Amino acid sequence: MADTTTAPRDPHNLVLVLFYYLAIGTLLPWNFFINVNGYWMHKFRTVNSTSMANVTDTKNELQLEFTSDLAVAAMVPNVLFLILNGLFGHRFKTTPRLLWSLCFVVILFISTLVLVQVDTDTWQLEFLAITLVIIVLINIFTAIVQGGLFGLAGCFPSKYMNAVLGGQGIGGIFAATINILLLAIGGNAVSAAFYCFLLSVVFLSGSILALLFVTKTEFYRHYIKDASSSSDSPSETSPLIGETTTTSKSISVKEVLMSIWAEGLTVLIIYIVTLACFPAMTVLIESTNKNKPGSTSWENQFFVPVSCFLFYNIGDYIGRFIAASPVIPNIGSKLALVMSTTRIAFIPLFLFCNLAPHERHVTEVYFYSDGVYIALVFLLSISNGFLTSVVMVNAPAKVEPHQQQTASNMMVGILGMGLVLGAAVSGVLVKLL
After folding, report:
1. Does residue 85 lie within any of the structural domains?
2. SS3 127
3. What secondary structure letter does DSSP report for 298?
4. How big is the CA angle at 35 (ends 421 and 160), to the nearest 5 degrees?
5. For the chain, what is the domain count?
6. Helix-strand-coil split of the chain, %, nearest 5
7. Other beta carbons within 10 Å of 191
8. Which of 6, 143, 184, 314 is the most exposed place for a label (fewest CB within 10 A)?
């Protein structure tokens, strides 16, 4: 990293704050898509062919499998384009590349916004196909932005990487809270989804302005110039990820990978386990008191939005906050690897919770308790946020300054591989219910 003694100041930590803002935007599409679960359940509900009214509350095949389908459609293009962006992104000017990506995400969200108002009851399969295509395209463009932001953060002091990680955690809380508030003020699942998608359009439009501002600051130019050793303007020609051709020192991908193998393996295991459980399995939870005499709106309407999404994202942020706290010593990458391996136990534990209790054919419910499920959600999410932060910060610190951006990019790529594998495993686990 640059010599911080000669680096210009970040006035009022403005660049740090904007890193938080941009990080929220990188996962905002994913967070809103999974948080408006009630909207998807409405769109894919079983309807009567004559009256188009609900026939039963029992989940059909489209409803059971949509979240795992969504995860695969999101994660496969995400990791593929993280890799492609790392290999070829340096051939394109940085600022236009990221700005155009954000613009396309905004346009795609507008199309999703329009579909909310369209009656799709008579063409659910076609709507599913269109939705999955939109999700694929959105994740292609967000991968470019996400990979770029992580690679960029690797060139700055460690608190900027923590800002990116923390911002992504805040993004989940933000999306979950908005959805719950819209439901609480009397909106139904469809109207809540509409305003969530509308808010995404506004927020991501703001990300475009934030990106333009950050790349023009003296603080940004100082660190990127030091990391890339490029004579060109960093905001236009220096890549945010994957640059090896303009550096003054050669970069060996194999050497970097050997240096960060423990961190890479750890983040791979973390996200295989996390995506295997959340959200494809966890979203199928039902309160043990749902639709029973005396049950309240907590059990019938808010249990999934709060216990599955809000609690998960709060726990994830708590884990990231703990890892960034100067009071907590760094546990080291080897211990983080051991801890990530123990998380495999979450898979059978969630499988035995009260998930889709009326559609289980292979396994049985052993944990007939809302409290057990909520405790597992917090343990899964806190460990996810904590371990992710530890290894994502440790990896760039284990290589030479000119290799730090490459190390960060590789960690993002490995994380993406974990997301894809976890999403694939989640589809299998849903079949085991």
Report:
1. yes
2. helix
3. I
4. 70
5. 1
6. 75, 0, 25
7. 15
8. 6
CATH number of the domain at 425, please. 1.20.1250.20
Q: Are 262 and 393 within 8 A, CB to CB?
A: no
Rounded to whole angstroms, what are the CA distances from 207 to 19, 101, 126, 212, 303?
Answer: 10, 11, 32, 9, 32
4 within a domain of the structure (yes/no): no
Structural domain including 203 reads 11-431
Q: For residue 2, tell me if it sits in a domain.
A: no
pLDDT over 90 percentage in the chain: 28
Structure tokens at 144: 């470019």
For 69-104, give the DSSP string. Answer: HHHHHHHHHHHHHHHHHHHHGGGS-HHHHHHHHHHH
DSSP assignment, residue 367? Answer: B
Query: Concatenated DSSP letters for 188-222?
Result: -HHHHHHHHHHHHHHHHHHHHHHHHHHTTSHHHHH
CB 197 within 8 A of CB 33: no
Element (H, E) at 23: helix 14-35
**Contact of 308 with 381, CB cutoff 8 Å:** no
Strand stretches in 148-272, DSSP E: none
CA angle 24, 142, 395 (to 5 degrees): 70
pLDDT digits (tens, 9 = 90+) for 299-349: 888 899 899 989 999 999 999 889 888 788 888 888 999 999 999 999 999
Residue 54: partners with Cβ closer than 8 Å, 6 or more residues away: 45, 46, 47, 48
CB of 407 within 8 A of CB of 241? no
Q: State residue 263 phi and psi, 5-degree precision.
A: -65, -40
Cα–Cα distance measured from residue 290 to residue 22, given in angstroms and rounded to the nearest whole number: 38
- Is the distance from CB of 122 to CB of 189 less than 8 angstroms? no
Q: Is residue 354 part of a domain?
A: yes
d(CA 239, CA 178): 34
